[in-house]
Amino acid sequence: MRKLASRMAAAGAVAALMTPAAWAQSSVTLYGVVDAGIEFVNKVGPQSNTVTRMLNLSGTVPSRWGLRGTEDLGGGLSSVFVLESGFAPGTGTSNQGGRLFGRQAWVGLQSSRWGQIGFGRQYTMLLWATLNSDILGPNVYGLMDSYLANARADNSLSYKGKFGGLTLGATYSFGRDATAVAVPGPSATNCPGQNPADKRECREWSAMVMYETDWWGVSAAYDSLSGGPGAFGGLSRSNLRDDRAVLSGYLVADRARIGAGVIARRNGALSTPRSNQYFAGVSYDVRPDVNLAAEAYYLDYCHTDNRAWLGAVRGTYLLSKRTSIYLTAGYVDNSGQLNMTVSAGATGANPVPGGNQFGVTAGIKQIF
Question: What is d(CA 246, CA 218) in angstroms, rounded to the nearest whole number?
Fold first, then answer.
């Protein structure tokens, strides 16, 4: 009888744990966005070809789905996690070097008093510093530095805390990128690191300070990538670094948002290591269901003739709270030996050195 009573008590305890009340302080949310469109780009390659294609990286934003969870641990402390997967809507394949959760994969603790710490693959502070000031963000025509929209690091620790209007943040990665693909891209650079023989190999660190009010904000951030054997982009040694410093700000006035900033970069693997990129844009809600946005970018490689400017405009119409259609156009003009493409992620669609290029995209986005 005692054994039977013990088993019944254990079963009751398990049942109690399974009741909704026991799980009331925990939540898991499925979320995502599917953004697909058709793009036309002219003046591709030395034959000045044109291409019409389905987007596979980003229209207004990259497509993704994810799981976000939190558990209240009491005393203002919660455990949190995010698992986020990026995919190409045209083919259904995974982006970020073919990873299952290539956009984010981290777990951490969050406190109402001191902020949040995270462990795993996560954004660096460079992204958070430009999130509100870069008006078009990861739009198909945007910043001429693909790392800005892909500022993530494997094997990283992060901290971000908000104290009134002040936000402080930092990351440190023991091995910033463990994936390589056949065609090197911003999301796969073959630098796994975590080598006991070389503590600098493939490390990443970033830091940010931001101050925001209800209608304006400013931010400054620094991001440093160390190289390693076999790493893409010429960063083949741990003493080679690719560093970026960002200063940006934004202003919200009635139905408009204005943003601007500068990104100073030094890449020790390049023959012209120093460059500066400037950006400024505006977004305006013509009415609740119609938005117009425009942004200009200027990239200058210091002490050379290599320069480029890019302009983009986008119109968005909301069919509902979750579904919108958009039309966006961009134009890039290169000088010197630069052959920057107008299109983000447009592998093999660059113009000739010193050439210009036009692109236009029409698409649909649904948020869930």
Answer: 11
Hey, what amino acid is at 301? Answer: Y
CA angle 267, 148, 351 (to 5 degrees): 75
Q: What is the DSSP track for 153-199?
A: EEEEEEEEEEETTEEEEEEEESSSB----SS-BTTB--B---BTTBT
pLDDT in tens, 198-238: 989 999 999 999 999 999 999 999 999 999 999 988 999 99
DSSP category for residue 149: G
Using an 8 Å Cβ cutoff, are 51 and 349 in contact? yes
Residue 21: inside a domain, yes or no?
no
Average pLDDT over residues 91-117: 94
Check: CB of residue 104 under 8 Å from CB of residue 270: no
Parent domain of 161: 29-367
Within-domain flag for 6: no
CA 348, 266, 190: angle at the middle one, nearest 5? 50
Rounded CA separation 145/132 (Å): 17
- In 3D space, the residue among 339, 311, 334, 346 whose CA is nearest the CA of residue 143 turns out to be 311
Cα torsion 92, 98, 103, 107: sign: positive
Distance CA(64)–CA(61), nearest Å, equals 9
> Are 107 and 135 in contact, with CB atoms under 8 Å apart?
no
CA angle at residue 203 from 198 to 208, to 5 degrees?
Answer: 150
3-class DSSP assignment, residue 22:
helix
Could you give the number of structural domains in the chain? 1
9 found inside a domain:
no
Closest CA to 180 of 146, 223, 230: 230
The whole-model pTM stands at 0.89
Tokens of 167: 């936000």
- Report yes or no on 309 lying in a domain: yes
Residue 349 confidence class, pLDDT cut points 50, 70, 90:
confident
Q: What's the confidence (pLDDT) of residue 149?
A: 85
pLDDT surpassing 80 at residue 197: yes
For residue 251, what is the domain's CATH number?
A: 2.40.160.10
| Count of positions (residues) in the chain | 368
Which amino acid type is present at position 355?
G
